[in-house]
Amino acid sequence: MTRKWLRWLPAVAVPAVIAAGALAGSLPARAGDPLPPRTPEQVLQLIAQHREPALSGTLEQSSELGLPELPKTGAGSDSSGTAWLELLTGPHTARVYRDGPDNARIQVLDRLAERNAVRHGNEVWFYNSKDNTASHLQLPAGTADHYGSGKDVTATPDQLAAMFLAKVDPSTDVSVGADVQVAGREAYNLVLTPRSDATLVSSIAVAVDGQTGLPLGVEVKARGQSEPAFRVAYTSLTLGAPDASVFTFSPPPGATVKEIQVPEHQEGKESANATPPAAKDSTHKPVVTGSGWESVAEFPAGTAGSTPDAAALLEQATVPVQGGRLLSTALVNVLVLDDGQVFVGSVPLERLQAAVLQK
Amino acid sequence: MLCALAAIPILIAVAVRVSSAVPPGRGPAFLDRIAQNGLFVGVTALVVSVPLFLPLTVGVVAGDTIAGEAGQGTLRYLLVAPAGRVRLLIVKYAGTALFVVVAPLVVALTGAGIGAALFPVGPVTLLSGDTIGPGEAVVRLLLIAAYLAVSLLGLSAIGLFISTLTDVPVGAMAATVVLSVVAQVLDALPQLEWLHPWLFSHYWLDFGDLLRQPVSWDSFAVNALLQGGYIAVFGALAYGRFITKDVLS
Q1: What is the model's pLDDT at position A267?
Q2: Which of B51, B190, B214 sits opposite A74 (nearest CB)?
Q3: How many CB atoms lie within 10 A of CB A32?
Q4: Is A320 on the interface with B (CB under 8 A)?
Q5: Which residues on chain A are in Cβ contact (under 8 Å) with B27?
Q6: pTM of the model
Q7: Extents of the domains making up chain A
């Protein structure tokens, strides 16, 4: 009997060894020297002095916004109407290539599909493999750095960090947390905490590369939620110019090519499918009440539900509340009044309703 | 069984040939590209056959290995030879592995062949929007077949283990196929996200990474590692079961 059980030994040992290996592999490996301690001001300075780097890397993005996750059917396809919403739900992987201010390529890797944004000089191409469509954009000379570098497809950590850091004002507490490791690199953890209680944002953490000052990851936490509501970070990063052929793009034969006219003002660009319908119409200027984290933006009537498609989507995603309908996510609340006015803010519903009454 | 697999690309190609143009974004991935480029028949056929047909045939072959011999009563005679049980197990698994390598290859090559016969062949558009020549496209197609061969090795190891548990080959085949379906169902449930990277079917459809420019090898590596783990675990279990088994029939 014992002899028989002895013969089972390898059958038990192999799974045990593999389980141990998997456990050891999932433990965070400490590598590299610890970074010298810096004050929040010094880290901010480090970010400010970083230049447009040449890099290639892989980004991982995940969202826990409280939106329903859209079903992902294995080999199938989904309608383009929900594509922008799909970017806000569930995890995504993207590859980023950059070389100087006017060479960039972002590839959003979907299962058996891919969305591309390529910028080479003043030429910008968008390509979606799902429906085999390409859009072309000719930038006027001397356009701002980030303009058109694929922001519509997905945001890189440094673009997001720049956006959040531009808003740092006395209503925000800036501190440096314990160093983190992102994509195998030691990084400072710059934490922005709103001083106000009347906001849905609990904290924003920016991982700043200790050597170059390049933001490597951004994590937004919402109140009452342990998992980050939004997270984007590099999982691998190689500094240095990528192969130049990456930035050359010509539409494949058989693809539907659309020419996009460059709009006069920056907000009006509607190119890839990442722009929410409500934000597309830039002719309506929002009125902002409140300050800092508690600010509420008010859009005049007629902003939401302009197309039947968007109206149906709105109907599904919102819940009726007093005075209108509420689209509630972990970070942003959107109140659509019955007359079509829209109030947006990362504040609780009560604050939005108070803003309505203040008018 | 290989003929049945080869019928899939032929069916797809003929269906697309006789029907009108397929609108982009409908049906299985790459279906709309076939009319422009015949080489996509191979890719589409692989996409179609990955969820069911390939696991089905692999399940039949792997489930039959030991249980089939036991069911026919020939296992005893095989073990009379001084080759030893371990060697028999290894030879049986090698036979399954050979089928696993050949099966996706047959689908891919038949697809490319029938596609080349019925449709024009030209530069192939990758997922990234870049185009490559037909020669390189065939290399990518062979890479995909290799990826799927690696992907199915884990399932065949599971099948081998189940096959040592029973004397009824049909039971082992069915159990293997059902397991592959169950794994894919679990993979589709977002509530079980923590489990997904451990499911042997999780990376099956990620062979699209080989159609990007530049090629993304990450999924190939992680898939190979996962399948290696499955082979080791279920190979060891099959070994433990088979050398302690009472072979009566």
Answers
A1: 41
A2: B51
A3: 13
A4: no
A5: 77
A6: 0.81
A7: 3-257, 277-357
CATH of domain A3-257: 2.50.20.10
The mean-pLDDT minimum among A17-21, A275-279, B120-124 falls in A275-279
Peptide bond just before B214 cis, omega within 30 deg:
yes
Instruction: Choose the closest CB to B244 out of A4, A131, A243.
Output: A4
User: Which residues of chain A neighbour B244 with C-beta distances below 8 Å?
Assistant: 4, 7-8
> CB–CB of A75 and B205 under 8 A?
yes
Residue percentage of chain A with pLDDT more than 90: 4
pLDDT the model gives residue A276 = 44
| pLDDT digit string, tens, across residues A131-169 | 888 888 887 765 554 444 444 456 788 888 888 888 787
| pLDDT, tens digit (0-9, with 9 covering 90-100), for A71-108 | 444 333 344 445 556 667 778 889 999 888 788 898 98
* Interchain CB contact of A4 with B (< 8 Å): yes
Task: For residue A7, give the chain B residue with the closest CA.
Answer: B240
Among residues A240, A176, A243, A238, which one has the least CA distance to residue A203? A176
**Nearest residue of A to residue B189 by CA position?**
A71
Which of B125, B128, B233 lies at the smallest CB-CB distance from A15? B233
Comparing CB atoms, the residue among A7, A18, A243 nearest residue B243 is A7
Sign of CA dihedral A83, A89, A90, A93: positive
pLDDT tens-digit map of A316-348: 777 888 878 888 888 888 888 887 788 888 888
The three-state DSSP-derived secondary structure of chain B is CHHHHHHHHHHHHHHHHHCCCCCCCCCCCCHHHCCCCCCHHHHHHHHHHCCCHHHHHHHHHHHHHHHHHHHHCCHHHHHHCCCCHHHHHHHHHHHHHHHHHHHHHHHHHHHHHHHHHHCCCCCEECCCCCEECHHHHHHHHHHHHHHHHHHHHHHHHHHHHHHHHCCCHHHHHHHHHHHHHHHHHHHHCHHHCCCHHHCCCCCHHHHHHHHCCCCCCHHHHHHHHHHHHHHHHHHHHHHHHHHHCCCCC
> Of the ranges A18-27, A301-310, B58-67, B161-170, which one carries the lowest mean pLDDT score?
A301-310
* Residue B231 phi, psi dihedral angles, 5° rounding: -60, -45
The CATH architecture one would assign to domain A277-357 is 2-Layer Sandwich (3.30)
Residues in chain B whose beta carbon is closer than 8 A to a beta carbon of chain A? 24-30, 32-33, 36, 47-48, 50-51, 122-123, 125, 127-131, 184, 188, 190, 205-206, 208-209, 212, 214, 216, 218, 229, 232-233, 235-237, 239-241, 243-244
pLDDT at A199: 87
